[in-house]
Specification:
Structural class: alpha+beta
Radius of gyration: 25 Å
Largest sheet: 8 strands, parallel, barrel
CATH topology of the largest domain: TIM Barrel
CATH superfamily of the largest domain: Glycosidases
Helix content: 10-25%
Strand content: 25-35%
CATH architecture of the largest domain: Alpha-Beta Barrel
CATH class of the largest domain: Alpha Beta
Length: 596
């Protein structure tokens, strides 16, 4: 069935007043086997629309090589939403923020130091155009006027918090229109004039929306004032109503009271349309977590994107969900609601380590190898994510300990001399002296550098700190060392490893566990990584994300779609020499609705 959607003094669906009640579900943060569960629960709440970003870096991981399969199958996600009777808002801007690696832009853009991403730079716009050729051809048939369910698309995302280049914004808009996008367009920004003025295209009839999480009356008043300034009487919409928040390593988990949220959501619905950000947060699988920018220290975000949303990381209803359902039914008695779906978890069990192997024994598994006199950052070698190991030989020149320095690197380094760890340094420590005892003759120097995530928002988005690995040189005494081997481990999937025995290890190592499951045991689980230091975990070869003993979350969610009947392999890559010989699998918490 074909519908119409218009923006006049009201939002009109098939000519009738329509209030968008949307929830954000990012298809790329939810395993495809769980899309239906999340979308069904959105519809069961009584909402009518799903909203999603589109991450460029996941769809074009290397230049001109595109991926729209599996978790990247945006069209299948939209089709599933349509089958459930949900409309869609799609936000396909080159930059998405979203607490996502580099704000969704591909890190390979950083290899061209003459390019200025997220600007009118013709080299950047040419890359966007190539990406849009692929993306818009897939989105075009899903628009409302083509029989699909997309009612609106976004031009750019919170650009008013970044810059004010209208030429760039118009270039993105024109690219979308030239590639057959016909549904109404929008922008979303902070709802105060400075952001709206810099980030909107209101004079091009692009609807400005606000992003906020409280004080709806005040924020909508600012948005309406901006509309009037441009002689518009458009309806009001909060494109991101923040019902929770994201978490960073080493900080406490952030929670929002369900009752207070109910009141705040009701205030939005009194005056306009809403999109709950997030409805189901999901997981930053692999290395796709973003990073918050600070003056001295960038703060990487955790793997879980639970967000304290109405659905938890697993996709099950939380107290917020049940409270919202009750509030909505009272406010809109005609609203059609149904019982939400609840998934089960695998019962707790403990696995024993089968075998392990260290990183140094597996250098042939590197995805990128390169030799040069000088050290190079990841991006110059065609690597975007993961770890990179630099190796060289140095001579002993004195009976005194040698002064070593890694002048400039990101984000965290381990320095080894002859296979022994001599220093671990993080962002603010890198560049300080490292004292190392050398033996006569040549000594092997290994430097392992971890990319912990690129900034996704703010003034450091294009700072040199977003290039990862060693960015300048390494010193012994007062001189630069030369002649380096580069071993890149992007670890987006588990490489082929030389597992030989089960032995104690002090160097970065891979630890292998197994769990055998029957058909009826293929259920969600969590890897309890208490007692492990820092690293990433793989389930059946798939990178499920980072862990770190500093917390606040010391487990990794594993959706049932990553498991199969029979033997399942779990491999933990741990870099600090802190590990256990046993690994616990734990079930998730399931919340029951509170009786009225």
């Amino acid at each position: 069935m074909t519908h119409t959607f218009e923006i006049t003094d009201e939002l009109l669906l098939d000519g009738k007043a329509f209030k968008i009640m949307a929830g954000a579900i990012h298809y790329f943060r939810v395993h495809p086997t769980d899309w239906y569960h999340s979308l069904y629960n959105l519809k069961a709440l009584g909402f009518n629309t799903v909203e999603t970003y589109v991450p460029w870096n996941l769809h074009e991981p290397t230049p001109d090589i595109f991926n729209f399969e599996g978790i990247c199958d945006l069209e299948a996600f939209l089709d599933m939403a349509a089958e459930l009777g949900l409309f869609a808002i799609v936000r396909p801007s080159p930059y998405i923020c979203a607490e996502w690696e580099f704000g969704g832009m591909p890190a390979w853009l950083l290899a061209d130091r003459s390019m200025r991403p997220r600007s009118r730079d013709e080299r950047f716009l040419a890359r966007v155009a190539s990406y849009y050729d692929e993306l818009m051809a897939r989105l075009r048939p899903h628009q409302l006027d083509a029989g699909g369910n997309i009612i609106m698309m976004q031009v750019e995302n919170e650009y008013g918090s970044y810059c004010e280049d209208k030429h760039y914004l118009n270039a993105i808009r024109e690219m979308m229109i030239a590639r057959g996008i016909t549904v109404p367009l929008c922008t979303s920004d902070g709802p105060w004039r400075a952001c709206l003025r810099a980030g909107s295209l209101i004079d091009q009839d692009v609807l400005p929306c606000g992003n906020f999480g409280s004080r709806a009356h005040e924020n909508f008043a600012e948005l309406a004032r901006f509309h009037r300034e441009h002689q518009k009487t458009w309806p009001l919409m909060c494109m991101e109503f923040w019902d929770g928040w994201f978490n960073r390593w080493g900080e406490e988990v952030i929670r929002r009271d369900p009752e207070e949220l109910d009141e705040a959501v009701g205030e939005v619905l009194d005056e306009g349309s809403i999109c709950l950000y997030m409805f189901h947060g999901g997981t930053n699988f692999g290395f796709m977590n973003g990073c918050s920018a600070r003056l001295q220290l960038d703060l990487p975000q955790v793997t879980s994107y639970d967000y304290d949303a109405p659905l938890d990381e697993q996709g099950n209803p939380t107290p917020k969900y049940y409270a919202l359902a009750s509030m909505l039914k009272k406010r809109f008695p005609e609203l059609e609601q149904s019982e939400p779906l609840i998934k089960k978890s695998l019962p707790a069990r403990v696995l024993t380590r089968q075998v392990n192997t260290d990183l140094f024994e597996n250098l042939e598994a590197a995805t990128h190898t390169y030799h040069d006199l000088y050290t190079h950052p990841m991006e110059d070698l065609g690597q975007n994510l993961g770890y990179i190991l630099y190796r060289t030989q140095i001579e002993r020149d004195s009976t005194e300990p040698e002064h070593l320095r890694v002048i400039d690197a990101r984000d965290r380094i381990h320095v080894f001399v002859n296979g022994e760890l001599v220093a671990t340094q993080y962002q603010t420590e890198i560049g300080e002296d490292i004292m190392a005892e050398l033996k006569d003759g040549n000594n092997q120097l290994d430097i392992l550098v971890k990319n912990m995530g690129r900034v996704n928002y703010g003034h450091k988005l294009l700072a040199d700190t977003q290039r990862k690995g060693i960015r300048t040189r390494v010193c012994a005494d007062l001189h630069f060392i030369s002649n380096f081997e580069h071993y890149g481990f992007d670890l987006t999937v588990l490489p082929r490893l030389n597992f030989t025995e089960n032995k104690p290890c002090k160097t970065p190592s891979f630890h292998r566990f197994e769990v055998t499951l029957s058909e009826d045991e293929i259920l969600d689980t969590n890897l309890d990584l208490t007692g492990f230091g820092k690293g990433v975990a793989f389930v059946n070869g798939q990178n499920v994300g980072r862990f770190w003993e500093c917390g606040p979350i010391r487990s990794l969610y594993v959706p049932h779609g990553m498991l199969h009947a029979g033997t399942n392999e779990i491999v933990i890559f741990e870099t600090e020499g802190v590990y256990r010989d046993q690994l616990a699998l734990s079930p998730a918490v399931v919340y029951e609705p509170v009786a009225e």
